[in-house]
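Homework help board

Subject: predicted structure for assignment chain

Our instructor gave us this sequence and asked us to write out the predicted structure in token form, then describe one feature. I got the tokens but I'm not sure how to describe them. Can anyone check?
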Amino acid sequence: MPSNIAEGAGRNTNGEFKNFLGIASGSLIELFTQLVLAYRLHLFSENQVQHLLSRVGEIQKMNYALIKSLKLKK
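My token output:
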């Protein structure tokens, strides 16, 4: 996800940046899925995975806020 944001920030337009922020959002959803699978495979305790999923949710909100701020700057 950070690499997607970095790559988008290096592009020439806000439109390209927003596109990479969308890709970063998809990466967060992938991470969410991987954490759920890791829990089901007993690689994390419920408390551990809940904490991580909460952090993923916080980051997702920040990413959406950044996307929204760029849309307002058209």
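Reply (TA_rk): Your tokens look well-formed. For the description, you could write something like this. Residues 29 and 56 are 9 Å apart (CA to CA). That's the kind of observation they're looking for.
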